[in-house]
Design a protein that fits this description.
The protein is α/β, with parallel strands linked by helices. The chain is built from 13 helices and 14 strands. It has a domain of 237 residues: 3-Layer(aba) Sandwich (Rossmann fold), CATH 3.40.50.
C-alpha cells in the first residue's frame, strides 16, 4: 500500500512509519519540521522520504498515487490552543479539511484522522462513540469539527476513519514530556518527586503510542466497508485511570520517588471511555501496553540515554515551549508559517 503520513517526524509519527515500512508499505512523510530538534534517541529502522511542507499548502500533486493518507500533523496540545487558538483552528480544523478535500480530489481512497477522546470533555459515567461530545478546549473543538466536516466528504471513492485516541504515553524517538504519564515519569527520574497540584481524582483513558500505531495499521488493513466513515475510540477499558492512580503507578516504578497531592483542581475534564466498537469493527484488535509497562519502558530509556533535567524540561520535548521559541525568534510568523529567518 502507498501511504502518506503527515506529521511523520512527530511523537506518534516516528513510531508509526518504521512499522509500516518494515511490513513492506511504501511510505511518504509530510512534515513542516517544527519539532525536528526533539530527538531523544535513535531507534533504528528505515525512515521514509519526507516532503517538508505545511498541510495548509498540500496540493493534489503531493498526494496523487497514494492509496491512503494518515493525518497526524496537527498542533498539539491544549496550552498551544490557549496561546494561539486562531492558528490552532487554521491548522487543525481548516488545514485538516483542506488536506482531506485535496486527498479526495487526488483519488486517495482511505483517510485516517487522529482525533481524540478529549472531545468528550466532562462526562458522567462511561462514554462511547454514540455519546454526546463536550469539547472544552480549542484543540478538542477542532477535533470535533474535523470529524463533522471530513465525515461529510465520504463517498464511494473516499473513506475517512476517525480514531479518537486516548491520552498517549510511552517512549518515542521524538519524545514528548508534555503529556501526563511521560511528564510524571520524567519528574520521577530527574527530581525523585511527583508533586500534584490537584487531588488527582479526574479520570483519563490512556493508550501507548505503539498501540495507536497498531490501530492505524488495523484500519488500513480492514475491508473498506468496515471502516468507512467510522469513529473509533482507541484504547482499553483497563487503562481508564484516575490521575492519582497514574501518578502512584509511575512513582512505584522509580525507587525513592515521593508523590503528593493537593486540593481539587480547576480542570474539570473527567471522562471514562468504552472501547468496545473498535474490537467489533477490527476483530482481534486489542492493546498490548498498560500504564505500569509504559512507566517501566520509560525508566529503561531514561537510564539508557542518561536523561538529565535540562533535557527533560527543554523545549525540544515540550510543544508549547518550542512554538513560543519559534515565534519569539521570528523563525515563524504569527500564522506559524516559516519565514526567511528560518
Amino acid at each position: 500500500m502507498r501511504i502518506l503520513v503527515t506529521g511523520n517526524e512527530g511523537y506518534l509519527g516516528s513510531l508509526l512509519t518504521p512499522t509500516l515500512l518494515a511490513r513492506g508499505d511504501e511510505v511518504t512523510g509530510l512534515d513542516t519540521g517544527y519539532y525536528r530538534n526533539g530527538w531523544l534517541y535513535h531507534a533504528g529502522g528505515e525512515l521514509p522520504r519526507t516532503l517538508v511542507k505545511d498541510v495548509r499548502d498540500v496540493t493534489v500533486e503531493d498526494l496523487a498515487g497514494h492509496d491512503a493518507v494518515v493525518h497526524m500533523a496537527e498542533l498539539s496540545n491544549d496550552p498551544i490552543g490557549d496561546l494561539i487558538g486562531d492558528v490552532t483552528a487554521d491548522i487543525n480544523h481548516h488545514g485538516s479539511v483542506h488536506l482531506a478535500r485535496t486527498a479526495r480530489a487526488a483519488g486517495v481512497e482511505r483517510f485516517v484522522h487522529m482525533s481524540s477522546c478529549s472531545v468528550y470533555g466532562v462526562a458522567e459515567g462511561t462514554v462511547d462513540e454514540t455519546s454526546p461530545i463536550d469539547p472544552q478546549t480549542a484543540y478538542a473543538r477542532c477535533k470535533a469539527l474535523v470529524e463533522r466536516d471530513v465525515g461529510a466528504l465520504a463517498d464511494d471513492g473516499f473513506s475517512p476513519t476517525f480514531l479518537r485516541n486516548a491520552t498517549a504515553f510511552g517512549a518515542s524517538p521524538r519524545m514528548r514530556f508534555d503529556i501526563v504519564l511521560n511528564n510524571l515519569a520524567g519528574l520521577a527520574w530527574t527530581t525523585h518527586r511527583i508533586a500534584m497540584t490537584s487531588d488527582g481524582t479526574p479520570w483519563r483513558p490512556l493508550v501507548h503510542g505503539l498501540d495507536i500505531a497498531k490501530a492505524i495499521r488495523a484500519v488500513l488493513d480492514a475491508p473498506r466497508e468496515a471502516v468507512h466513515g467510522q469513529v473509533l475510540n482507541v484504547g482499553s477499558e483497563r487503562e481508564n485511570r484516575t490521575v492519582r492512580d497514574i501518578a502512584e503507578t509511575v512513582a512505584a516504578e522509580f525507587p525513592g520517588c515521593a508523590v503528593t497531592f493537593g486540593a481539587p483542581g480547576a480542570d474539570n475534564r473527567s471522562y471514562r471511555v468504552a472501547f468496545d466498537r473498535i474490537r467489533t469493527v477490527l476483530p482481534g484488535f486489542d492493546t498490548d501496553w498498560d500504564v505500569a509497562a509504559g512507566a517501566a519502558q520509560l525508566h529503561r530509556v531514561f537510564e539508557a540515554v542518561a536523561l538529565d533535567e535540562e533535557t527533560f524540561r527543554g523545549r525540544g520535548h515540550t510543544r508549547l515551549a518550542q512554538v513560543e521559541h519559534l515565534l519569539k525568534t521570528g523563525q515563524v510568523d504569527a500564522g506559524l508559517f516559516w519565514t526567511d529567518a528560518a
